[in-house]
Amino acid sequence: MEDKDILRGLYRNYYGSDADEMQKLAGSGGDRVYYRMKSPAGVCIGTVGDSLSDCRAFTGLSRVFRRHGIDVPEVYAVADDGLHYIQQDLGDTSLLSLRGTEEWRQMAAMAMLSMARMQSVDGSEWKDIVAYRPFSRRQVLWDLNYFKYEYLKPLRVPFDEELLEDDFERLASRLTGDSAGPWGFMMRDCQSRNVMVSGGKPWWIDFQGGRRGPVAYDVVSMLWQAKAGLSDNEKKELAAVYAAEYERITGNDAGRLLDALPLLAFFRTLQVLGAYGFRGLVEKKAHFIESIDPALRNLENLYQRATGDDLPELRRVCSYVCAHSPSPAPHDGLLVKVYSFSYKKGYPADFTGNGGGFMFDCRGMHNPGRYDEYKPLTGLDLPVREFLEERGEVQKFVAEAFDMVSPSVECYLRRGFSDLQVGFGCTGGRHRSVYCADMLARRIAAAFPDAKVMVIHREQNITEKL
């Protein structure tokens, strides 16, 4: 039976009539599918799950938390397969969408109070419902290696793997010890886009990944969420609201919880950069690409507080990453980025969500890198430039590339587009591609003064704004 038919059956059995409308809702980070189902009898959300264990956790935890007066959606009916269910419709207004309004401040404070109550529910009521094992050293190392393999390596960030793994081990010990503060129910994916505002209060909608763990993890997930862009004062105020409520309910010292925040916030930022790397750099999903730059700003504010002499290689890597952000700050007008690169190391990453642009292959031209006198030089050095120009082929190549690219630059300027990417690749990304990228970038800058132009020689670690 088709997913829609199963949901229609649940709706019919619950409301006593068929749904007149069934509108598919925009997806989020996961693979679950949601439909808004309507008829005069009522409105609900039909859910098609992607994991049986997650679905069982969500429906079971919903019942537990509602018994304690915590605002989570009511699950009306569940199909026999456990993967399809209908639940309370809380509308389309997320806490994140209210950012910058006076209502946001009020709802955010209420959400922190509600979070403290949720995390304080006795573990005996939910330990057999959650789908995941408690937060552990193994999970920490998984997430840290996710950061290494999905963010650092795709961007070719230099690091000593043995030393970095040593630091990961030390960090894992701190995160699973007293430094992480008190433990309780940990939602794990706690962020303001997963809080809906309905009926004048916030509702938690995404807690199926919950498990036992340090409660401060959820606090930092909420307050250091990259897209929310909270100021230091806002983070401090909301953390204090949470800590006071958690201390009132559990008796745990608020100061101990607040002391754990920088360490957990640092770890959470590394974790989300790994996710943004995979979902953005690998899967090319624009939402995640756009989140990389604000996440790096979080990292810049955190890593010096959370690392020290005991984590030297991780500290060095974070310093490098923050200093070499691949995602430029938001800009007005058109930005044209012209890359040189080595085909051996793959195409330049696109951080705009547009999927890249023009790519030109320079390997058909005579290679100066074959000769000893040119090997230590680049396409920016006069002897290499003279070598390439003497044969006449490179001038024609760049001119024809300009003829292909310039109509797009003109069109993008006219239509108000913000980004265009051009790449020149050769074997090593040192001679031919560097020359061509530099020459084309300068021609574009001269021909289109209203455009901003950057030339990026990726393998040479050179970036210039023209």
Indicate the topology.
Elements: H1 3-15, E1 21-24, E2 33-39, E3 42-48, H2 52-67, E4 75-78, E5 84-88, H3 102-119, H4 137-152, H5 161-175, E6 183-186, E7 195-198, E8 201-204, E9 211-214, H6 216-223, H7 232-250, H8 254-259, H9 261-282, H10 286-306, H11 312-323, E10 335-342, E11 358-361, H12 382-390, H13 393-415, E12 419-426, H14 432-447, E13 452-457, E14 462-465
Helix pairs in contact: 3-7, 4-5, 4-9, 6-9, 9-10, 10-11, 13-14
What descriptive keywords fit this protein?
466 residues; alpha+beta; five-stranded antiparallel β-sheet; five-stranded mixed β-sheet; 14 helices; globular
Structure description:
This protein is α+β, with helices and mostly antiparallel strands. Helix content is 46%, strand content 16%. It contains 14 helices and 14 strands. The chain has helices spanning 3-15, 52-67, 102-119, 137-152, 161-175, 216-223, 232-250, 254-259, 261-282, 286-306, 312-323, 382-390, 393-415, 432-447, and strands spanning 21-24, 33-39, 42-48, 75-78, 84-88, 183-186, 195-198, 201-204, 211-214, 335-342, 358-361, 419-426, 452-457, 462-465. The strands form four sheets. The chain has a five-stranded antiparallel β-sheet, sandwiched between helices. β13 (452-457) and β14 (462-465) form a beta hairpin. The longest helix has 23 residues, at 393-415.
Question: Can you give me a brief rundown of this structure?
Answer:
Helix content is 46%, strand content 16%. By secondary structure, the chain is α+β, with helices and mostly antiparallel strands.
